[in-house]
Amino acid sequence: QLQLQESGPGLVKPSETLSLTCTVSGGSISSNTYYWGWIRQPPGKGLEWMGSIYYSGNTYYNPSLKSRVTISVDTPKNRFSLKLSSVTATDTAVYYCARHRAGVVTAHWYFDLWGRGTLVTVSS
Amino acid sequence: DIQMTQSPSSLSASVGDRVTVTCRASQSISRYLNWYQQKPGKAPKLLIYDASSLQSGVPSRFSGSGSGTDFTLTISSLQPEDFATYYCQQSYGSPYTFGLGTKVEIK
User: Fold this and answer.
1) B16 exposed, middle or buried (CB, 10 Å; 0-12, 13-18, 19+)?
2) Region of B16 on the Ramachandran plot (φ > 0 left; ψ -120 to 50 alpha; else beta)
3) What are phi and psi of A90, to 5 degrees?
4) In terms of CA atoms, which chain B residue is nearest residue A112?
5) What's the pLDDT tens digit per position in A69-104?
6) Which of A105, A116, B89, B95 is in Cβ range 3.0-4.6 Å of A62 for a Cys bridge?
7) Cβ–Cβ pairs < 8 A, chains A and B
């Protein structure tokens, strides 16, 4: 059964770059059936889609974050990563990696499998 | 961006009640509307996709309806494990936005 697991530092200083990795187990990230995304949730607040990637490397970003976000895929290691630059306290959130299905032309943009999430706090 | 507005923001209900949560989009999104359930400290779980398609493994007491701008999630008979926060999400266009959630609490 496919599982997703986020990993990375739980504390990042303001102005630095947040880096997280999502490791896919029980299946291949190179499947042409799925896309892989990042979604975050500030404490006590709602959900925000940050961006997604296909195994080929094609990326899709939330325009509000596009200047600060980079998502990459490492197919040999079966994982994908998130980098968010110039972080501030407003970037404090639980960060989830998630899967969504590929369609005939593009992706289906609903998330059918999620990691457990990891809390990242931005503080000096 | 497409804004998703959920109502109510919270509700109290009893086991066995029929519960309805509403989601309104700021523009027409056809049937590209999805529903998630989130329990405290857990990741969201997909319940309904494309407005009315039940995700595999989700109990049939959950149903979704609507198209255009107005959508509904219905729980036909609320069970103890259904007390949670429910989010709608549009998958019509980027950025793929979520509502602020409806918290279903025990009366």
Assistant:
1) exposed
2) left
3) -70, -10
4) B46
5) 999 999 999 999 999 999 999 999 999 999 999 887
6) B95
7) 51
